[in-house]
Amino acid sequence: MKFKPLGTSEIDISTIIMGTWQAGKTMWTGIDDKEIRKALRAAYDSGITTFDTATVYGDGHSERMVGSALRNIRDDVVIATKVFPNRLDHRGVITSCEQSLRDLGTDMIDLYQIHWPAGSFGTKVVPIEETMTALNTLKDQGKIRSIGVSNFSRAQLEEASRHGRIDSLQPPYSLFWRHFEKDILPYCTENSIAVLAYSPMAQGFLTGKFGPDHQFEKGDHRSKNRLFKPDHYRRVQEALAHLKPIAERNGLSLAQLALAWVTSHEAACAIAGARYASQARDNAAAGETLLPETDLEEMDRIGRRVTDHMNVENAVMWEF
């Protein structure tokens, strides 16, 4: 497993990060707690040391799963979690962090992130200065080690940075979703801000497991993904057909190829979820992969067959 620095903090994070949205069960189907625990431990045993969760994932259930599964190896792992935009006032940030500490069963969070900007999903608009003041207080108290943001635009990232050190940005980023490349990625690179890319497999689309006629089960949030709209979905299927030979000649699955493409970018790590231990092990294996430059260039051209038709002004993947 390769490692990259978490911004300017003294923390190193694994190139492949275990994502745990599915561990919260809400907005997912067919999730089993026992299998999730096995997946979390398999991820660690395979070299993944960084685990990303959030208080909103199952109202703390994901955090509790992460905490219980990793408790006896806590000093060997990096745990990242997030505060939801309905708690971004000063008191809300403090109390949300304290609840996360309890749910995770730890006295310190390695990376504490703003999940979405204030005002998202109809929440109250809170000045970023107020939120950052609370986060800086938590950092001074030793309850968190570093501060990150998620789903922020460049302007929002710049504003937050005026009120404290931001060590990471968590954007949606994959071969099929590249909105943040134009102006946010250069800013992150210039300012030593780590990129923790979520949905690097485009929520499973880049695994190739969803055929042309796939229908998601009721309650599966992926049915609301913009890539699943008929016109985009047809382009996705065509792109996958061209990606398969690249995966095969590198001895990779399509999922591993997708992860390796994201992590080929200097500042980027890939957050990959897993329901089962076998998936976690497969994800971890991608952390050792270095793709040839010619393959990366070909993948770039293939991916743009999808992304060139997306609305670049709308960076939100879902239409909830």
> What portion of the residues fall into strands of 2 or more residues?
5-15%
CATH homologous superfamily annotation: NADP-dependent oxidoreductase domain
Order of helices and strands: EEEHEHEHEHEHEHEHHEHH
What is the name of the CATH topology?
TIM Barrel
Radius of gyration: 18 Å
Biggest sheet overview: 8 strands, parallel, barrel
Provide the CATH top-level class. Alpha Beta
Task: Choose one word for the global shape.
Answer: globular
- Record field, number of beta strands: 10
- Helix amount, in percent? 25-40%
Number of helices in the DSSP assignment: 10
**Total domain count:** 1
Quaternary structure annotation: single chain
Q: Give the termini separation.
A: 36 Å
Q: SS-based structural class?
A: alpha/beta
Main attributes of the structure:
single chain; 320 residues; alpha/beta; TIM Barrel; 8-stranded parallel β-barrel; two-stranded antiparallel ribbon; 10 strands; 12% strand
Please give a quick description of this structure.
The chain is an alpha/beta fold.
What's the layout of helices and strands?
Elements: E1 3-5, E2 12-14, E3 16-19, H1 33-45, E4 50-52, H2 61-70, E5 78-83, H3 90-104, E6 111-114, H4 128-140, E7 147-150, H5 154-161, E8 168-170, H6 184-190, E9 194-197, H7 230-249, H8 254-263, E10 268-273, H9 277-285, H10 293-307
Helix pairs in contact: 1-2, 1-9, 2-3, 3-4, 7-10
Care to describe what's here?
By secondary structure, the protein is α/β, with parallel strands linked by helices. It has one domain (3-204, 255-289): NADP-dependent oxidoreductase domain (TIM Barrel). Helix content is 38%, strand content 12%. It is built from ten helices and ten strands. It has helices at 33-45, 61-70, 90-104, 128-140, 154-161, 184-190, 230-249, 254-263, 277-285, 293-307, and strands at 3-5, 12-14, 16-19, 50-52, 78-83, 111-114, 147-150, 168-170, 194-197, 268-273. The strands form two sheets. It has an eight-stranded parallel β-barrel with strand order 3-4-5-6-7-8-9-10, surrounded by six helices. Strands 1-2 form a two-stranded antiparallel ribbon. The longest helix has 20 residues, at 230-249. The chain is globular and about 50 Å long. 49% of the residues are buried. The model has no long low-confidence stretch (mean pLDDT 93).
